[in-house]
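Before our next group meeting I need something from you. Please put the record directly below this note.
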Amino acid sequence: MASTPCTVASRLGVALVVVLTLSGCSESTGGKLVQVKGKVFVGSQPLGGGSVSFRPQETGSNPGPEPYGTIESDGTYTMYTNQKPGAPVGKYFALVVATEEADSTGTTVTPKSLIDPKYADPDSKRLPIEVVENAAPGQYDLKLAK
């Protein structure tokens, strides 16, 4: 059966949509993701909870998704980007948030920060970090002052 011009155009249109969708998916994560695992310290002690996020050092019209991670009770964290493990290669400023748990009374009280609030301030730019393909051990450890 011979293809009509309409059928050929429809197939090309579908192929174009598939290609654009697939290329958009890779860009939505910021490109290839590399494993990022580290440990957060306050002084010499591991921080026992909280979260870490990476903000790109270069801000453009579309900086892309921000990698994020949860700090475990032993201070370790693993970064995720769009719910996938890893972070795109690049230069970032790390932000760390750690607050005490809310009390069981259910009252709305502003949670107290367990670390200096400057580490959660996106304008402070205190914790520069670079995500690379073959990171050295400890490269992603974050050391906060008491």
